[in-house]
Amino acid sequence: MRILVVEDEPTLQTQLRDAIAAAGHTVETAADGSTARYLGQEETFDAVVLDLGLPVVDGLTVLRHWRACGRGMPVLILTARSAWHEKVMGMDAGADDYLAKPFHMEELLARLRALLRRLSPHSSAQWQCGSILLDTRQATVAVDGLPLVLTSHEFKILALLMQRVGEVLSRTELSEHLYPQDSERDSNTIEVFVGRLRKKLPAGSIETVRGLGYRLVPAPAESLP
């Protein structure tokens, strides 16, 4: 999934980015409220981790702006431990959860997983399509109970396809979820990763819809290993 991390303290931003990326997500970052406001309005994210004490534009103003624009992605706000009033204002502004600083990274990841489960069609940490089982908590994939070894890019593409089983996803959409905003996005490389996935998954799991993109479907019974 694609997560936006908005944090102006460089060390904490790096720690958040690395931990969330290690959990199998694609992470974009912003260090000030103006950049965050623009990204949240113009780009699509599955969730946002938003610090309220931001330069240029404060986090509450950013959050209110997103909600006023109809942006409904789940938002986990970060507040100072003593600033209880910020927690209340944050929830009133449309936040879905909050975490007080300092915090343990494991708790943040757990809260983020809970938000993604609660506000997505998947109520469980385990997603299934035919014989394919993806565990979002452990960032693992198995086919008929046998572990599958995937690269980080392959896992991210499969996770997005499994999140939206049966839907056609364009190469551009897959590319945007795979690469950070400041990377050179090349939708042609998606063909390479999809080709590798096809070799590891049951035959027929990933369909090509000519001119549109790819979709994940349960493999035909005769194609299962």
From TrEMBL:
<keyword id="KW-0902">Two-component regulatory system</keyword>
<dbReference type="GO" id="GO:0000976">
    <property type="term" value="F:transcription cis-regulatory region binding"/>
</dbReference>
<keyword id="KW-0805">Transcription regulation</keyword>
<feature type="modified residue" description="4-aspartylphosphate">
    <location>
        <position position="51"/>
    </location>
</feature>
<dbReference type="GO" id="GO:0000156">
    <property type="term" value="F:phosphorelay response regulator activity"/>
</dbReference>
<protein>
    <submittedName>
        <fullName>DNA-binding response regulator</fullName>
    </submittedName>
</protein>
<dbReference type="GO" id="GO:0005829">
    <property type="term" value="C:cytosol"/>
</dbReference>
<keyword id="KW-0597">Phosphoprotein</keyword>
<dbReference type="Pfam" id="PF00072">
    <property type="entry name" value="Response_reg"/>
</dbReference>
<feature type="domain" description="OmpR/PhoB-type">
    <location>
        <begin position="124"/>
        <end position="218"/>
    </location>
</feature>
<dbReference type="GO" id="GO:0032993">
    <property type="term" value="C:protein-DNA complex"/>
</dbReference>
<dbReference type="InterPro" id="IPR011006">
    <property type="entry name" value="CheY-like_superfamily"/>
</dbReference>
<keyword id="KW-0804">Transcription</keyword>
<dbReference type="InterPro" id="IPR039420">
    <property type="entry name" value="WalR-like"/>
</dbReference>
<dbReference type="GO" id="GO:0006355">
    <property type="term" value="P:regulation of DNA-templated transcription"/>
</dbReference>
<dbReference type="InterPro" id="IPR036388">
    <property type="entry name" value="WH-like_DNA-bd_sf"/>
</dbReference>
<dbReference type="InterPro" id="IPR001867">
    <property type="entry name" value="OmpR/PhoB-type_DNA-bd"/>
</dbReference>
<keyword id="KW-0238">DNA-binding</keyword>
<feature type="DNA-binding region" description="OmpR/PhoB-type">
    <location>
        <begin position="124"/>
        <end position="218"/>
    </location>
</feature>
<dbReference type="Pfam" id="PF00486">
    <property type="entry name" value="Trans_reg_C"/>
</dbReference>
<dbReference type="InterPro" id="IPR001789">
    <property type="entry name" value="Sig_transdc_resp-reg_receiver"/>
</dbReference>
<feature type="domain" description="Response regulatory">
    <location>
        <begin position="2"/>
        <end position="116"/>
    </location>
</feature>
